[in-house]
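Anyone able to model this chain together with threonylcarbamoyladenylate?
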Amino acid sequence: MTRRLGPDQQGLDEAAAILHSGGLVAMPTETVYGLAANALDSVAVARIFEAKRRPSFDPLIVHLPSADKAFALATSVPAAARLLAATFWPGPLTLVLPRAATIPDIVAAELPTVGLRVPAHPVARQLLERVGIPLAAPSANLFGFVSPTSAAHVLDGLDGRIDALIDGGPCAHGLESTVVAFDGDRPIILRHGAITREQIAALCGDVGEGARVLERPLAPGQLARHYATRTPLRLFDRSDQLPEPAATAALIVVTGPVPDAQHRGNLSARALSPTGSLTQAAAVLFAALREADASGASELRILTCDDSGLGRAINDRLRRAAVRP
Ligand code: TXA
Ligand code: MG
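re: yes, here you go
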């Protein structure tokens, strides 16, 4: 049984008690829902991998209530990391730093580093303050599937597999945090996310990108196939590439209105942000993918957005979702 908890004092107290006894609690964050466990308890963390059916080579992000508490779990902190933290924490940014010995191997998938994040969501912050231990939390979905941006999405995949869920309503950003490692003092973006490359470059100057800053390739936000829908998904860069509308094909337009009259007539066509706001499109992207996936369509067609700013993170998720096994 998965207990449904409210985002109030009583709910937070119960959640804290479950976490202290090694249990699993799904919590809202400003990006997506996370599946939390005591990051210092290897057995509790092992339960996360089991509940999500997540391969053990995929390291977890550790959540803390403040930058001081986060940096206490790193053996060294480059100046660029301090600057990014001062600017974007609390918020949707994960910093990958050399890990302190207190972080169990299983959290870091035996890498010498750990991903640290101070979330901004008030419920996540209150829980972190209340519980007083670092919380390891991946997105609260079965491994490889679309990340959950509401309590109902969490239950879709994990009902009965986790101890409790705090319902904090829909997530504001709808895209996971940006994951940044460091090569000396140079930030390297490992996963695009809610904080854009442009925002990081404005602060730190030179920014790299890549999945291989350490001695081995870094896992799964980086796996080719991830964020998968069950229904096959086809991506189109331009509206004039879209095939004729078909009753069995759902169309999702990321930014701007549904292109022309013939597609507008298609009841299963949906514009995520008719006014063209990337922020708005990101916030509803995962929910729209889930809905279209459940609609009975035999194909999902997606008109992608420009590859800049938040558009880079949106297109990244869509490309990975489109890869068929
Ligand atoms: O917004 C988010 O980041 C959400 C919320 C719950 O905080 N969490 C999330 O976790 O998306 P997850 O486990 O689904 O994705 C974590 C990503 C993975 O791509 C993982 O490979 C990367 O962060 N990561 C974690 N620790 C790392 C490390 N030490 N080195 C490199 N990559 C790391
Ligand atoms: Mg995930």
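The pocket of threonylcarbamoyladenylate (ligand 1) is lined by residues 29, 31-32, 34, 58-61, 92, 94, 96, 108, 111, 113-115, 117, 137-139, 176-177, 179, 190-191, 218-221 (CB under 6 Å).
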